[in-house]
Amino acid sequence: MSSIKEIKSRISSVKDTQKITNAMYLIASTKMRKAKRELDKTRPYFTLLQREIKRIFRTVEDVESRYFYPADGSHIREGTYGCLVITADKGLAGAYNSNVIKEAEKLRAEHADTKFFVVGEYGRQYFLQHNIPIERSFLYTAQNPTMSRAREISSLLLEMFECGEVKKIYIIYTDWKNGLSEEAITTRLLPFHRAQFMTAPVTEKAVTSAFEFYPSVETVLDNVMQSYVSGFIYSALVDSFCSEQNARMTAMNAANQNAEAILAELSAQYNQVRQAAITQEITEVSAGAMAQKRKRRKAVAIQWQ
Questions:
Q1: More confidently predicted of 155 and 199
Q2: What is the pTM assigned to this prediction?
Q3: Using CA atoms, how far apart are residues 212 and 220, in angstroms rounded to an integer?
Q4: What architecture (CATH level 2) is domain 30-252?
């Protein structure tokens, strides 16, 4: 059994670790609320973009765009895929990073000819350690996503898509569902299906007069889609960031609970060892007293002889 000194040292160590995990929980909570506020500020703009795209399809029949599957329903021929993988810069977030990596490995197994674009140090290190080629690694941090970073990513992906280097673009990120749970998902970013916008739950007023598009409806749609893609990527970055902080809060909360359980067990063990030490001291004192008493009696008996 451990000594009292060893148990007290371990209790002190667990308490110090608990202070760190509790601080990380509070920091993650603050970052998540801040990111969610930023997302809520920009979401109305992209909701309106989605509404206008839907309005274009309802106003002009059979409009063609390189960002959409053909109107006749034919599929785009197979070719190289591009995939944006969004991970965190560090661990201590439960299964957040590993779930994203699993989705990336799944896509890689289904389509070997895939170029990966990575956000986050965790994903970057995983790809390097497993000798998986990275087409482009965005070296800025995955923390605190901004619209300018989303535009930088979207401009690169759109350029490769438009020049035919990639036929399809996917994005793997963690969707923060209603602020209650998160799930790593793989979403096809380009090309879009028209049904994505025709069936989107966006209310709009009935079209009563014809619209005029300048210089053409295709040009207007292409410009709108570029902004929409940037917004989608920004939303994915913020969703992933919020999911990361939520996962870290869950992990740190579990760590705090485990620390409480360990402290309770150590306290019981400390009290048990301390009680045993006290009992042993009392026994030793009593035995010493008894020995002295017997010694005095023996001395008195010798004196009377």
A1: 155
A2: 0.77
A3: 10
A4: 3-Layer(aba) Sandwich (3.40)
